[in-house]
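Input:
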Amino acid sequence: MPSQTYAIWILLAPLLAAVLIGAVGLRGLRDKSHWLAIGGVAAALVLALMLFGQIRAVPEEARADIFTRSHKIYEWFRPGFGGLASLKWFDFEFRIDPLTGVMLVTVLSVSLMVVIYSSGYMRDHHGHPERGYERFFAFLALFIFSMCLLVLAGNFVLLYVGWELVGLCSYLLIGFYYPKPSAAAAAKKAFIVTRIGDFGFAMGIFLIFWRCGDVSFAYVFSQAGLAKLVGWETPVALLLFCGAVGKSAQLPLHTWLPDAMEGPSPVSALIHAATMVTAGVYMVARCGAIFTESPTAMATVASVGAITAFFAATIAITQFDMKRALAYSTISQLGYMFLGLGVHAADAAVFHLFTHAFFKSLLFLAAGSVMHAMGGCIDIRRFGGLAKGMKVTAFVFWVGGLALAGFPFLSGFWSKDEILHAALGVSLPLAIVGYVTALLTAFYTFRLIFIAFHGPLKLPQGVEHAHESVPAMTIPMLLLSIGAAGAGYIGLQHGGKLNELLRTVLVGRLEEHAPGMAHVMSPEAAMAMSGVLSAIGILSAWYIYRRKPMIAMAAAFAMRGPYELIKNKYYIDELYDAVIVRPLHDLGKFCYGFDRYFINALLWIITAIPRAAGFMLRSLQQGAIQGYAMGMVIGLLVIVVAVLSAT
Amino acid sequence: MTTAPQLMFIGAILFALGVAGFLTRRNLIIMFLCTEIMFQGILLNLVGMGLMRGNLQGQAVGLFVLVVAAVEAGLGLAIVVMLYRRRGTLDAEKWSLMRG
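Output:
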C-alpha cells in the first residue's frame, strides 16, 4: 500500500468517528459513543504504526529523496486573481517522513489511551454518562483528526488549517462545561491568546509565499526555495516562531494553558501531551531548514525556551491546584523542547516531545483519577495520604513523576539529558538555567506526590473514602506508565534508533553548524549530573514535605515578597489585564456607546422621514365606508367645479 | 308636460339626498337604500337628457339601467344579509377594521 493511502485513512478514521458520533450520537449511541471514537483512533494508530514501519524500512540511500517528496492527493485551490492565473496550484499534499511518523505514533497512542480513559472518566460513580457524553467524544475524535492533519500536512497552508482546527477543538473541549463561567472564559482565553500567535504565523506564511511563490515544504525547504529566502530568514523564522509561542504556551503567551485546566482532565492530558501544545515544537522542528539559517532566530528560540522553562518551574512549586502545577510543568517542559530546538538539537527536542507525551498524559490522567475520587476537588491542601486507598493511581503517578523529574533510566531522563548536553555545547548560561530547572522539576513533582499521596489520610468534606477508579481508567494509565518508563530506550543517543531516523530529516546538529564549539562536558558526566540533580530534588522534596513540613511554611513566610510574587504567577495575568484586556474592554465599551448613541441616532433621524409621511397619510386609510364615500363626493365636487369653471 | 330641466333638477335633488343619506347614516340597509336613491336620480337625468335630444335613446338606456339596478339590488341585499349574519348587526362602523 503506498504511504499516502495510509495517510488518508489515518485522517479519515478519526474524522469518520467524529462525524458519525455527531450525526447519530444523540439519537442512537448515547453512552456507547466512546466505542466509535476508540475504534477510529485505534484503527488510525494501527495504520500509523504500519506507516512508521514503512518509513523505517526505507533504505539509507533513498531517504534523502523519499523523505523530501510531497505526496499530492489532489489540486486544492489556486490563489490570486484573474490576471495572475499563472500562479501555482496549492495542493492537498502530505509530507511523510520520520518526523511525521514519530508525531503520528505519539499522538495516536497517547490519544487512544486518553479516549479509553475518558469512557470511564466521563461518568459518575454509578456509571451513568455525564451530560454531553457523545459531544465530548465527537470533539475528541475531531481534535485527534486535526492534529493528524497538522503533522501530515505537506505545505504551510494545510499546516495552518490543521493548526487552526486544533485551536478550535481546544476551544470546544476546554469549554466543555460551558454553563460554568470560568470554563467559558478559559476556552475563550485559550482561543484568543493562541490567535495572537497565529497572526504572526500567518504573516510568516505570507512572507514565505511572497518570497518563494509557493508554500509546499518540498519547494520551500529545497535549495532553490531557501535561496529565495536569503536575507529574509530571520523575519520569517521569528514570525513562524510567534505561532509556536502561542500554540506551545511559551512566554509571553503562556497564560492560556493553566486556565485550560477548566476542561475535563482527559482533555488536559490530550492538550498537554499530544494534540495541541506539541504543535509548536513540531512546526519549528519541521521548519528547521529556515531556522538554522538565522542565528538570531535560533538564539531567540533557545532563550525563550530556557527562560520559560525556569520561569514556569518556579510557579509550579507554589501552586496548590494539582492540575495547575502540572500545567506549569508542561510549559516548563515545552521550554526544554524549544531550548533543544534552539541549540541545534531538534532530534533531542522531538525525542523529548515523544517521551513527555507519555509521562505528562499519564500524570494528567492520574490527577484526573484523583479528582474523580475526591468528588471534583483538586486542591492538594485538602487531601493527603491517598496512596493507601488508590494504589494504582499512586503507582502510576510515581512512575510519571520519576520520568518527569528525569530520574535515571526513566524516559524523561534520556531525553532531557540529551537536550541539556546539547545546550552545554552551545551556551553555558542556557545550560545552567536548564540544569537548575531540572532540579526544580524534580522538586515540584515530588512535592505534589508527597503531599497528595503520602502522610496521614486526609479527605475533603463529603468524601468518605478514597476509592480506586474503574478499570477503564486504570488500564490506560498502566499502559501509559510502561511508555513513561520505557519510551526513552528507543531513542538513546548511542545506538538509539529513533534519533538516527529523525536526524535524516531534521536539519542541524551541533557538529554541522558549530564545529568550533567543543563539548564542555562528556556525555557521561552530563548524564550523571542530571541524575544527581534529579535525586537531590526528590530528596529535598521528601525532606521538606514529609519530614519537616514546617520548613516550607517558614520559607514561604521568610520570603513573603518573592513567594507572593511567584504564587500569583508573577502577576502576568494581572499585567495583561491592566495593559491589554482593560483598555480593549474600554475601547469596546466606547465603540458600543458610539454605535448606540451616535449611529443609532443618525439612523433614527433618517427613518423619521418615511415615518412622518406615513403618519400624515394614514388617516386616508381609516377603513370606514363613510370616509371613502366622502372622498368620492369631494372628488366629484372638484370635477364638477372644474368642468363648470372651464365652460 | 314636464320639461327636461325639471326632470334633471328633480334628478339632482334625488342624487344629493342619496349622497347626504349615504354619508350620514350608519345602518347598512339605509345606506343601501340611499345608493338606490342616487341611482334613481341618475336615471331621471338620463331620461331628461334623452328629452333634450328629442329621441328615445335616453329612456332606452334608462330601462337598461333599471334592470341592472334591480340585479345589483339583489346582489347588494344578499351581501348585507351575509354581513348581518357574520356580526349580528347592521352598523357599518363595525366593519372598519383599519385604525387609520
